[in-house]
Amino acid sequence: MASLPPGTSPGPGAHPHPAPRHPRLDPLADRYAARTHGMKTSEIRALFSVVSRPEVVSLAGGMPAVTALPLDAVGSMIGELVTGMGAQTLQYGSGQGDPRLRERICDVMALEGITDASPSEVVVTVGSQQGLDLVTRVFCDPGDVILAEGPSYVGALGVFEAAQARVRHVTMDDDGLVPEALEQALLECRAAGDRVKFLYTVPNFHNPAGVTLSEPRRQAVMEIADRYDLLVIEDNPYGLLGFDREPMRALRARDDQRVIYLGSFSKTFSPGLRVGWVLAPLAVREKLVLATEAQVLCPPSLTQYAVARYLDTQPWREQIKLFTELYRERRDATLESLEALMPAGTTWTHPDGGFYVWLKLPHGLDAKLMQPRAVNAHVAYVPGIGFYADGSGREHMRLSYCYPEPDQIREGVRRLARVVEAELELHATFDAVDTGTFRAVRGGTQVPGVDPFVGPANSDRYGDRG
Amino acid sequence: MSEPTTTPAAAPAAAPPDRGDPLRAVVLAGGLTFEREVSLSSGTQVWEELNRVGLDAELRDADADLLPGLAAARADAVFIALHGATGEDGSLRAVLDLAGVPYVGSPAAACRLAWDKPAAKGVVRSAGLTTPDWVALPHSTFRELGAGAVLDLIVARLGLPLMVKPASGGSALGAQKVARVEDLPAAMVSCFAYGDTVLVERFVDGVELALGVVDLGEGPQALPAVEITPESGVFDYTARYTPGLTEYHAPARVPDDVAARAAALAVEVHRVLGLADLSRTDAIVSPDGEVHFLEVNVSPGLTETSMYPMALEAAGHSLGDVLARLLTRRAATAR
Fold it and tell me: CA of A141, closest CA in chain B: separation in Å?
């Protein structure tokens, strides 16, 4: 007898009653909500686990360069908030957020032309991510349609999927969302009887595309919104991170009823504090506050006070300049290296702010399938497919230049170029294969005369015998 | 072929080493391979289990700090929970041999053989065991001889469906079943992204088994076979590591004679490849009851969804006790 048959008593020293193991390892497997079925471990996640190692140049993560902050000053500021104001900063706060912070948020939004916002229209959220989740919960039923740029922010797609909304992508180019494509999408949705709940757009230094919606296009998009009674969700975490010019006028500055605006301190100050906000008309604000109370009761008091104190006492505008100078150097290193090293047929966007370059591989290459080769070469990027809800984007990847130093970026792009070249060679070998000419198989599934299931494995027909 | 015997259940946990202190073990996990995440998950589980049974265990990554770190830790023995290259291809073990640090598991040369799946299949077939027909080729062969002509020959000789997988590496990364000839070129492209050599195998349909082997000092012995039934029909990365997507039965629901042949095969594979302490052989039982060897892992997954711990459990062992015994034995041999 080779192994213990079922029911055999384990010997002395063994666990007397090992907990019975569910055959599927999860006794609750049949009880999950339908919307969680997509929550699975993926190979992409596995490949990402090496990104944190210092040997790997990561052009993948969108992590702001927080070490460029005056850490000592921020540290003592936060210390004082606890020692001097612990009764407030360590206590629950209002669901809508600290009133003082909401006032300061209005000052920040004024830099992008939103001068009519009142603190009472602002809801502070745990990053703008929670803001987007609240807005989606408040507006979307399962099956509703959300229009979004193609590609679109991966974190937004996750929120929309959890709400069981359907995403329809709208084409963009170097000037951002294409208004004609938006109108076409609206017409098609109308014809199909789809309920379009809103347009979700990142107009400045788009994640992942790196492009910015031009001024004429802003006007055109808002005209279409008027004509089609379309609600617009303007997600603007990067608007103050332009390299070459003043911030552009926000969509919300053009229409205070039709646009809900999402803002964030993650890129201008610190993502670890998780402070963002929603600016919405009063009726919507009311629902957002009720929704946030059901979710988190109130945003964290300490981090709200920290942001308000930072804006009150630190030179935050100068700090943003410092950030943008740093990011500009890194963008330059990225674009120069791409120009010098990438094989012909590769194209990419030229961002003038923000964190990201959107790269298109030579025809036929697949950024997701190429990823293991990149991991082997110790360089990481995000495959484009993650930024689409419909499975497109295979030829694309997102490169982030915000975190690595310029020298690391140059080395990373060098490695990436070699990976693309090797992948091109591979395609040159296999792409031209015409399997229709194979003698044994004519578009079929099986070789005549050969049992396809159990081979004569002990015969000497084939195989490189050891 | 030696007749495998039933594993004796574990004696009480690790006998403490002579000096009376708990045994100091270093668990290596992480690394820079595709399987880093899986390895961290295995390593964490091993580390927790070893501490639970009373060892003084430390979890470390295999990086540039490893050798000084091992010297400073004055470890009695090392457990390698690294998956993928370095940890499984023998190279790290060769370095540990140089450093005189005892470790649990197979010696470097045996690992190198098992890591090379086509080479291991060759040895296994020479020993008279069954393994699906195969061919292993580097990209350069296809480039130089013409991919169309070579693929045509492969299909003509091996038929369809085929399994296409990297010649080394685990967790089913890069592996796929190809049922239609027109899908073959794309499968080759995605497989070559994982490594320079592709193993193309005749696909065998049947019951998938994971066959654990452990040697607690009395020779290699088979653990109860674990039967794998993925919901989607394909035991890929997602099916392996998402609880709920795959059904496991330990012992496998196969006739006793099939279970006995499977156990004998796993022990023989362990023996002919020169493996030590523990291994996991992956096999398929075809409808005629034949057990086909697919590949063997010298560093089997030890995560919460892995088959080796399930096999130990089915035999009445606990993972922590068994690993502690293996570590204690290696530490004692070194002293």
Answer: 28
User: Which residues of B are less than 8 Å from A362 in CB distance?
Assistant: none
Model confidence over A51-86: pLDDT tens digits? 888 899 999 988 999 999 999 999 999 999 999 999
ipTM: 0.87
What is the reported pLDDT for A245?
Answer: 84
Judged by a CB distance cut-off of 8 A, whether residue A462 touches chain B is: yes
Is A71-314 a domain of CATH 3.40.640.10?
yes
Q: Which helix (H) or strand (E) holds B60?
A: strand B56-60
A425 interfaces chain B, CB cutoff of 8 Å: yes
- Å from B181 to nearest chain A CA? 6
Q: Are strands A347-348 and A276-279 parallel, antiparallel or unpaired?
A: unpaired
pLDDT score for A1: 33
Residues of A in contact with B38 (CB under 8 A): 46
Q: Do domains A45-68+318-428 and A71-314 have the same CATH topology?
A: no
- Give the Cα separation of B302 and B305 in Å (integer): 8
Residue A53 touches chain B, beta carbons under 8 Å = yes
Q: Is B63 a catalytic residue?
A: no
Q: Is B61 a catalytic residue?
A: no
> Which residue of the set B41, B297, B299, B306 is catalytic?
B297
Our CA-based measurement puts residue A415 at a distance from the nearest CA of chain B, in whole angstroms, of 15
> Is B152 within 8 Å of A438 when comparing Cβ atoms?
yes
Does B205 contact A427 at a Cβ distance shorter than 8 Å?
no
Interface contact A444, partner B, CB < 8 A: yes
Which of A106, A388, A113 lies closest to A239, judged by CA?
A113
Judge whether residue B13 has pLDDT over 50. no
Chain B contact set for A50 (CB, 8 A): 32-34, 36
Where are chain A's structural domains?
A: 45-68+318-428, 71-314
* Structural domains in chain B, sorted by start: 24-111+322-334 (3.40.50.20), 117-129+204-315 (3.30.470.20), 134-202 (3.30.1490.20)
pTM strictly above 0.95: no
Helix, strand, coil tally for chain B in percent (to 5): 40, 20, 40
Residue B126: closest C-alpha in chain A: A466
CATH architecture of A45-68+318-428: Alpha-Beta Complex (3.90)
- CB distance A209 to A358 below 8 Å: yes
The per-residue pLDDT for range A10-29, each reduced to its tens digit, is 343 444 445 567 888 888 88
Q: Is residue B24 flagged as an active site residue? A: no
